[in-house]
Amino acid sequence: MPARKNVEKVMIIGLDCADPTLMFQRFWNDLPNLRSLAERGSYGVMTSTMPPITVPAWSCMASSKDPGQLGIYGMHNRADWSYGKMIIPTSLGVREPRLWDILSEHGRKSFVFGVPQTYPPRPLNGEMISCWFAPSLESDYTYPVSLKREIAEQFGEYLPDVRPYRTDKKDWLIAQTHRMTDQRFEMIHHFAASRDWNLFWSVDMGPDRLHHGLWQYMDENHHRYVPGNPYEHAIRDYYRFVDERLGRLLATLDLDRIAVWVVSDHGAKGMKGGVCFNEWLIREGYLTLKDDLKGPTRFADVNIDWSRTKAWGEGGYYARCFFNVQGREPQGQLRPVDLDDFTRELAGKLETMVDHEGKLMGTKVFQPKDIYRTVRGFPPDLIVLFGNLSWRSVGMVGTGTLYTFENDTGPDDANHNIEGMFICAHPGCAAGKTAISIYDVAPTVLTQLGLQPPADMIGRNVLPD
Fold it and tell me: Residue 2: which pLDDT band, with cuts at 50, 70 and 90?
């Protein structure tokens, strides 16, 4: 397909967890620069991956491949078929080409900044500041390594993330998030102006951190919401801050020759509480412990009787359920021939779970083989969205309850939502509100730059002239 007239560059501003309902409805009149950009182009909801998790969602967006094709199912993946070994999937685990890899093959240059799953940085035709996976600023978190010196000289201490964002220190969280985002936009401005690039892709974690830390103070439907609380407008004020900084950046760009995207990997929604998944599996007879517990205990610290266990789960914004299969796990109990019946039985029970008030929870259950084009690596046997992401999964056992309203990993008010957002404006773009998939970004960007998207990409070019 030919490139759109005059489009020479594509800039993608990634805002992790930026929510379409907040951006396009609740705060719309407070965001003049985002609104102006949207009205110049196309904008709307962008459906995320299943599950809608930062890792692997950004890599799925950049490759137009699904989690099964990547073999990456969340922030923690099974490393093998043993019971306890989990790993954080770094850039080394991404074996499908992402946008900057494809552009490098065509002699195009990219500047990649903070995109999750880019640590450790790998060579490309251009430069890279990798993501918050970097263990410290002492690590080689840039490509080339010499880029670290320029960052330190120009910006002082680089802030890749806000840590910890699950904290009771809300004033600190707000100030640190604003500081990080302010530095991020200063760096985008500097490197966009001083480098030769065809693709400039940055991601800021700020929206995600404030949603998780402050949602209860904004959401009138949250069980902890108190009208008139001191943080009631903190998330709105942050969106306004992002809008102002974006406006400054846009004023420096030649918008007659640059396509500008603003995207999120998923949205956000209020979290009612947590389901103690392994506690439920114990009560249902699928998981057996060898010892009685005296109180809440991390699942990794309990003594499991694998000879009497058929399934176990991991905590997180969604639940990963693993089966104990003969010939696969070391002490497998389920015969492969019985897996289909067992899956239907367990999924049926999960989908009919009730909440703490006895009301149907609305849980959704997926099998990887049913939702992905292929399934690589060591996937969960079931992907479980408690209350369709209104509840998170809690892996701890010994809690004495199936439901908890205190997060086991620190204060957290929000879960992820399947609906993220996008804005795309470029010369000659047909304006209007529409809906796209996260898989559509990469092929559309390639088309904008005059390149034919690979045939094995899931998505399609969705922004015709």
Answer: very low
User: What single DSSP character describes residue 325?
Assistant: B
How far, in Å, CA of 56 to CA of 94, rounded? 9
Neighbour tally for 172: CB within 10 Å: 12
Coil/strand/helix, residue 440: helix
- Indicate the helix (H) or strand (E) that contains 127: strand 126-129
- Amino acid (one-letter) located at 389: L
Identify the pLDDT of residue 426: 84
Q: What CATH number does residue 155 fall under?
A: 3.40.720.10
Q: What is the pTM of this model?
A: 0.96
Q: Is the distance from CB of 52 to CB of 266 less than 8 angstroms?
A: yes
Q: Are 112 and 100 in contact (CB under 8 A)?
A: yes
The one-character DSSP state at 26 is I
* Count of domains observed in the chain: 2
Tokens 């509840």, residue located: 391
Identify whether 255 is part of a domain.
yes
Q: Which residues are paired to 258 by β-bridges?
A: 9
The string of pLDDT tens digits covering residues 267-319 is 999 999 999 999 999 999 999 999 888 889 999 899 999 999 999 999 899 99
DSSP string, 196-222: --SEEEEEE-HHHHHHHHHHHHH-TTS
CB-based contacts of 221, cutoff 8 Å, min separation 6:
270
Check if the beta carbon of residue 415 is closer than 8 Å to that of residue 222.
no
Residue 462 located in a structural domain = no
Q: How far apart are CA 253 and CA 187, in angstroms?
A: 14
Are 292 and 359 found together in one domain?
yes
| Domain residue limits at 293 | 273-411
Distance, CA of 312 to chain centre: 24
- pLDDT tens, position by position, 136-148: 999 999 999 999 9
Under the banding of pLDDT at 50, 70 and 90, the label for residue 264 is very high
Is the pLDDT at 427 greater than 90? The verdict is: no
Tell me the residue type at 211. H
Lowest mean pLDDT among 59-68, 411-420, 456-465: 456-465
- Residue 450, C-beta contacts closer than 8 angstroms, at least 6 positions apart: 1, 2, 3, 7
Neighbours of 465 (CB within 10 A): 10
Half-sphere exposure of 138 (CA within 13 A, CB side): 1
Please answer whether residues 11 and 261 qualify as being in contact, where contact means their C-beta atoms are separated by less than 8 angstroms: yes
247 with 265, same domain: the answer is yes
Question: Would 305 be classed as within a structural domain?
Answer: yes
